[in-house]
Specification:
The structure is a single chain. By secondary structure, this protein is mainly α. The protein has one domain. It has helices at 2-17, 20-39, 50-74, 79-84, 87-92, 97-124, 133-163, 167-196, 203-210, 214-224, 227-233, 236-241, 246-270. It is globular. The relative contact order is 0.15.
Length: 273
């Protein structure tokens, strides 16, 4: 564990030196404060409190922004070390390759967690109104699941970085992963549902298909998993059809972290530096 902590600390220092932490915090805080300010306007008669408006707004922002930040952080974690000539130096230390990869992963996730918590936490001050315990728990759960979603895409970035041999290729594949999982998957699934017209794809099948996209899992955890937020987000009907509990959804998101990271570790262990 000490070796992993040392590698993680190295990644955090590199993030501070390269202004990744500051840039991510400023970006997330700026957008979060803007959305919180705009979302604190009167919301009609639906009975949604400002904190729920903020949760819905930040959840929608997270689906697009946090995965992109995570991939930008991680796509050159291995291939970048190889191109800079520092990978051989790392491998010369008395460390296993899995310790190096896990330490770098932990450092990147901690950077993302710090930026997300500080950036989104600043929006809580602008939520306004009386904030009850349930709302605070929902807000904390949104931040926690946002960090977990970021960890998913950090792991996917590591998998990309372990497969390719050039940083430019890794950057292109990382953008492709982001486009596929954040935008194209839902569009393809919608087209499939329209073409099928309910003949073969049942509600159960649809639920399982949605688990194949971490962005959809995150969306259900935060938008369909809370009654107040789901009403405001227009997902209350879909929430009623959801066949998985919150625990299953969180476990699915965790599996999206473990599986790509495990494959990245196996590829890295067998690949020549």
């Amino acid at each position: 564990m000490n070796a992993i902590a040392i590698i993680a600390g190295r990644e955090i220092r590199d993030g501070l030196r390269n202004r990744w932490v500051l840039g991510a915090v400023v970006l997330l805080a700026g957008l979060a404060l803007t959305l919180s300010f705009l979302g604190s306007a009167p919301t009609g008669t639906v009975g949604v409190e400002p904190i729920e408006v903020t949760i819905v707004s930040l959840s929608s922002l997270t689906i697009f922004l946090v995965p992109l930040i995570a991939l930008l952080l991680s796509h050159d974690a291995i291939v970048g070390e190889r191109e800079r000539g520092t990978l051989l130096l790392l491998l010369s230390y008395p460390l296993s390759r899995w310790q190096i990869l896990l330490g770098k992963f932990l450092g990147h996730v901690l950077i993302l967690a710090f930026a997300t918590t500080l950036g989104y936490g600043s929006a809580l001050a602008l939520a306004g109104g009386d904030i009850d315990r349930d709302s605070l728990v929902s807000f904390a759960g949104m931040i926690g699941s946002a960090v977990l979603l970021g960890a998913v895409f950090v792991a996917l970035g590591y998998l990309v970085s372990a497969v390719v041999r050039e940083r430019a290729t890794a950057a292109g594949l990382a953008i492709g992963v982001w486009l596929t999982l954040v935008l194209l998957y839902d569009m393809a699934l919608l087209g499939l549902l329209v073409a099928d017209q309910g003949r073969t794809i049942s509600a159960t099948t649809l639920n399982w298909l949605l688990l194949l996209d971490p962005a959809d899992v995150f969306r259900f955890i935060n938008l369909a998993g809370m009654s107040k937020a789901s009403v405001f987000a227009g997902m209350s009907g879909l929430a009623e059809q959801l066949q998985f509990g919150r625990g299953v959804l969180i476990a699915a998101l965790a599996a999206w972290v473990v599986v790509p990271l495990a494959f990245a570790t196996l590829i890295f262990a067998r690949k020549q530096p």
